[in-house]
Amino acid sequence: MLSLPFSCPPPKNTLSPFQKKPFSPSSSSVTCDRAIGKRNKSNSYLSISLPKLSKVLVSEASNAMPGDEEKEISAGTMDSPEEVELPAGLRRELMPNHVAVIMDGNRRWALERGLPVEQGHRAGGQAMTELTRLCSKWGVKVLTVFAFSTENWIRPKEEVDFLMMLFEEVTKTFSEEGARLNFRLSVIGDKSKLPKSLNQILARAEQALKANSGLHAVIALNYSGRYDILQVCQKVANHVKDGLIQPEDITQSMFEEQLETTGTKYPNPDLLIRTSGEHRISNFMLWQLAYTELYFVEKMFPDFGETDLIEALSSFQQRQRRYGGYKYSTSTN
Amino acid sequence: MSIYHVYDLNRGLNVPKRRTNCRIMGLGAEVQKVLHWIAQSGKIGLCLLWIILHLIIGIWYFAVDIVRAIESYLISSGLFKRYKALDISKVRYLAIVIDSEEARQTSKIIELLRWLAAIGIKSVCLYDPDGVMKKFKEAIMARLGDAKLSEEVTVNDPLLDQKFIALEFVSFLDGKEAVAKAANLLFDKYYLAGDQEKPIFTESIMVEALKAIGCVETEPDLMLVYGPTRCHLGFPAWRIRYTEIVHMGRLKTMKCGSLIKAIHKFTMVRQNYGT
């Protein structure tokens, strides 16, 4: 989120030893009537397969070759994720389908450097664009970023106005990048309170990139997890009133279909990254994060770069994911 | 192969080309042998390097585990000053999320609750997706001794004088399923009741609906997650807006020192609650 408030950073969240996880078709769409409960025999220590070592050597050698970066990205001829070489240590079959990011720490980043807060937000905007490019390149299907929360309106007016202007700029950049890199754009949140000009730019960008088939970038603007749940309650009540559904149809599964994130192929994130060392989800996608792997990073968001994303993805790929091993039943607990 | 003469520099003779070609082929075979030997040695070398790397990493993690165990012992024995005086008032409500398979270790859960009671935590919400702890709640309460269910604690009981630990047992059905039931209730209340004006559902309306179906509204300040995965396993979503989430590792490796450390870290965090 570009404008989360300043707070004292807690000590670093030390990670417990990595646990090897089995290969499983990654699916972030968890509904009650799916049971994915495979448990891996835990291996406390890091384990890398020997073939990967040679892959490390090969990929390092290929990374040394100049010009590869530009070769991969060219107007209208973006290599598909299957063709792009992944960084060392990452496995294509274990890439998360949906990554969510709480972009925290822009203000603190600027304050630490004696810069105006606006510079921090700009740096955050650049980091967000780069993050989107990398996710698109490495085969992540959906990227959701928490840009502005419903609670952020009480920030100083100048800062809020600047942010709205910055969102317009970033959206325009997204439009251009999206056309080049084949990604789509969606916006979730209560758009009614956003400036008209921003809404127009967002609508144009969404429309222009609608047909793209690559990464689906979702920007959460004026979003709140509770608001998301409430709007579903309102929606389903209206649907029942209009006779579209019956009251007994208001179930958890039906509820999930009405959330703001339902427009994506993978509505529930596999991995949530939060920067700046805070260990909470701050009212972001409350419903959707039930089985999402949480990854907290000490760095401020403008400093979150390619290496950090590789670390996050690598950490994700080495974790067990059981989706709770939960199978819906009608028994009451 | 045609035979023709070549001047041999060493012997000063004209040597048949066929012999030279044989020599070249013999040389090639030698080179191939050497290359093959190098390749084999290289593979063995790589394997050895691999084993050594594994060993180093294994020793490293073993050392880390030892250090953590020592640290935990020192913290729980009160030798570290900074962990002695915990500001427990900041932890008004603590959530413990446990993987359902690990939740069957009731002795471990009781030990954890005893530690929390000793630290001074007064209200704990125990969650596992399948409701295993809910099923064993009588046994847990009985073995714990000075514990009451949250719903039995009356408002008049002042928290500070509380000599017992208040426990709430929650499962997956108290989360998403409860929200769906609350939505049903809201529809019945606001849409079916005649010509009553249809309100815009707000958070306070939702909270009232959740209360009406028996859900606790209290938002935990801190959530400790025990299990292999670093997620909250479907803890009631409505309640964790600003909850600090800390992954503690597996229940079987839990340590009192780690618990104290996690709570201490939380007490040092400044929460702005989104404002």
Automatic annotation (TrEMBL), chain A:
InterPro entries registered for this protein in UniProt: UPP_synth-like, UPP_synth-like_CS, UPP_synth-like_sf
A molecular function GO annotation: magnesium ion binding
Primary enzyme class: transferase
Pfam families: Prenyltransf (PF01255)
PANTHER family: ALKYL TRANSFERASE, DEHYDRODOLICHYL DIPHOSPHATE SYNTHASE FAMILY MEMBER
Region (Disordered): 1-35
Key words of the record: Transferase
Organism this protein belongs to: Ilex paraguariensis (yerba mate)
Biased segments, Low complexity type: 16-29
Homology family: Belongs to the UPP synthase family.
EC number, as in UniProt: 2.5.1.-
GO CC terms of this entry: cytoplasm
The name this protein goes by in its record: Alkyl transferase
CDD domains: Cis_IPPS (cd00475)
From TrEMBL, chain B:
Localization of this protein: Endoplasmic reticulum membrane
GO molecular function annotation: ditrans,polycis-polyprenyl diphosphate synthase [(2E,6E)-farnesyl diphosphate specific] activity
Keyword Transferase in annotation: yes
Main location: endoplasmic reticulum
Reaction catalysed by this enzyme: n isopentenyl diphosphate + (2E,6E)-farnesyl diphosphate = a di-trans,poly-cis-polyprenyl diphosphate + n diphosphate
InterPro entries reported in the protein's UniProt record: Nus1/NgBR, UPP_synth-like_sf
Keywords (A to Z) from UniProt: Endoplasmic reticulum, Magnesium, Membrane, Transferase, Transmembrane, Transmembrane helix
Broad EC category: transferase
Enzyme Commission number(s) from the entry: 2.5.1.87
Associated pathway: Protein modification; protein glycosylation
UniProt keyword Ligase, yes or no: no
Family membership: Belongs to the UPP synthase family.
Name listed for the protein in its UniProt record: ditrans,polycis-polyprenyl diphosphate synthase [(2E,6E)-farnesyldiphosphate specific]
Annotated organism of origin: Ilex paraguariensis
